[in-house]
Amino acid sequence: MKGKCYIQGMAAISPQPTFEENCFSSPISFSTTNLLPCLEPDYKPFIPANSLRRMSRVLKMGLAASLKCIADSGIKVSGPIVTGTGKGSLQDTEKFLKEIVTYKETALNPTPFIQSTYNSVNGLIALQQKCTAYNNTFVHRGFSFENALLDSMMLLQEGEDHVLTGAFEEITREHFYIKSRIGFWKEEQIDSRELLSHHSPGSVAGEGAAFFMLTNQPTEKSYASITGLKLLYKPATEKLLSALQTFAPAVDAVITGRNGDSRFDHFYDTVEKYFGNTPQIPFKQLCGEYDTASAFGMWLGAHLLRAQELPQAWIGQPIAKPVNRLLLYNHFYGEQHVLIMLERV
Amino acid sequence: MEDLKTKLKEQIIEALNLQDTKPEDIDDNAPLFGEGLGLDSIDSLELMVLLERQYHIKVEDPREGRKILQSVQSMADFIQSKQPA
């Protein structure tokens, strides 16, 4: 990679208490319904009440996470905002579609329609920050966050000082049901903490919002640097192995998107076998499966690189120090595969 | 008329998701926009939708809408004027 990219600030709202200070001292939350919903914070300190009343869940999650990320970075001047989402605001979309049917295409409320558009979160952040810089939302299913990240890294290479990059996704009961009919989730109800020991078709549903302030210069506060990014669409095993060679051999641990879905485990098996005894750190038991779950994996990896440790309850095993290079590997139902190299600053 | 105004206030609170506001907090004659409840242009569209859904009244002329949506009192007067005698 030509340019440098550092994570200067970050924030996440997820099924775990990740928005709280000292979140790693809290016990991990779990579900036995195959749906891991986010633990939503009190939004009032971040969003004015008059705006809050109109926002749906994913808008509140996205805006609050982005504002906390900006505050965490200490960067005051707003710059480009680039995000990714697989589905955007499902709650608003469903509400709008239901109203079309109920009111026979008349007397339609404008708010759910306005907010159902994918770039609503970006717009809200820009309005809140009075930011008129580059603003883009990528909607590419399992590559949404990855394309936002790629675009952000290119912006940094082109000379931007910093870019706010993020991803947001929500699950609704209706969407959960629709996806259950096409085999996204496990048929048997499981404890999400035991996700990886249930080898059967499907996974558990999740959701979340994660934001990163990416910069072209490191500081003492930087969490990690992103030194490599590779996207592969429906790769054959040989192609995946060839991509892995780009990042090997000095990898201290692999953050793996393993999700208990027996139909696609062979990809993770390939990576695990390739890296031999290198520790594998799964994260889907914490956040569930969704289009932009790799953003949560990156958030977790960046924390590990800066703190050099994470509780065993979160990552399943003790990791030998120092942790200097982490490879994040994730794929979305066997189609969109991503490799992200994270390094200690 | 009093019943209509109370019902209207409840419907406004629900439609606009005015958390922490009770019907008795809304003055009949207080302006709905700017001061008073501090509503904005999106809210005005939602109130138009409320009139259409709940009272089957469609406001075609936006200039007329501005007068109708001045306060709860003006909305109630308008609804009453449209109801069959």
Describe it for me?
Chain A has 2 domains: 6-215, Peroxisomal Thiolase, Chain A, domain 1; 224-343, 3-Layer(aba) Sandwich (Peroxisomal Thiolase, Chain A, domain 1). Helix content of chain A is 34%, strand content 19%. Chain A has helices spanning 49-52, 57-73, 90-102, 110-116, 120-129, 144-157, 173-181, 237-247, 265-274, 284-287, 293-307, 312-315; strands at 6-13, 81-84, 135-138, 162-169, 208-215, 224-233, 253-256, 280-282, 325-332, 336-343. In chain B, α1 packs across α4 (72-82). Chain B is globular and about 35 Å long.
Distance between the termini of chain A: 16 Å
User: How many domains comprise the coordinates of chain B?
Assistant: 1
What is the string of helix and strand elements of chain A?
A: EHHEHHHEHEHEEHEHEHHHEE
Number of extended strands of chain A: 10
Radius of gyration of chain A: 19 Å
Low-pLDDT sequence parts of chain B: none
Strand-pairing-aware structural class of chain A: alpha/beta
Radius of gyration of chain B: 12 Å
CATH architecture annotation name of the largest domain in chain A: 3-Layer(aba) Sandwich
- What gap, in angstroms, lies between the N and C termini of chain B? 14 Å
Largest interface: chains, residues each: A-B, 13 and 12 residues
Q: Order of helices and strands of chain B, N to C?
A: HHHH
CATH-derived topology of chain B? Non-ribosomal Peptide Synthetase Peptidyl Carrier Protein, Chain A
Number of domains of chain A: 2
- Profile the largest sheet of chain B: none
What is the residue-mean pLDDT of chain B, rounded to a whole number? 91
Mind telling me the CATH superfamily name of chain B? ACP-like
Strand order of the main beta sheet of chain A, please? 3-2-4-5-1-6-10-9-7-8
Protein name (chain A): 3-oxoacyl-(Acyl-carrier-protein) synthase
GO molecular function (chain A): acyltransferase activity
Pfam families (chain A): Ketoacyl-synt_2
Domain Beta-ketoacyl synthase-like N-terminal (chain A): 45-175
